[in-house]
Write a structure and sequence with these properties.
The chain contains no helices and 11 strands. It is mainly beta and 126 residues long.
């Protein structure tokens, strides 16, 4: 059974930093793209960041560009999201996701991903 399990979400004050982790099991994720999405209360899920499997290149939503960094450790089947300079508007449930097969271009839409984690809550107080 393929699973993605996120961890690292916390209650934190604005300006602080957190690192989210997403551990995959059930298959290797080293040859597919992975990403992070988030969903705030009352809002639709939105793209945060993605990392290409073949090149390690990354792409970010404008709202987090320069503050968040996505990375991966293929040996550990894990993807990370380093979040710095957190703002109250970053408050959301954060989900990691993995494509089912290698794809072209950056995957910034939810429908491009096959596997999803259960989410981890990040709350940023002002």
């Amino acid at each position: 059974q393929v699973q993605l399990v996120e961890s690292g979400g916390e209650f934190i004050q604005a300006g602080g930093s957190l690192r989210l982790s997403c551990a995959g099991s059930g298959r290797s994720f080293s040859n597919i793209d992975m990403g992070w999405f988030r969903q705030a209360p009352g809002k639709e899920r939105e793209f945060v960041a993605t990392i290409r499997w073949i090149s390690g290149k990354t792409y970010y939503a404008e709202a987090v560009l320069g503050r968040f960094t996505i990375s991966r450790d293929n040996g550990k089947n894990t993807v990370y999201l380093q979040m710095n300079s957190l703002k109250p508007e970053d408050t959301a449930v954060y989900y990691c996701a993995a494509r089912g097969v290698p794809g072209l271009g950056y995957a910034i839409h939810g429908y491009e991903y096959l596997y999803w984690g259960q989410g981890t809550q990040v709350t940023v107080s002002s």
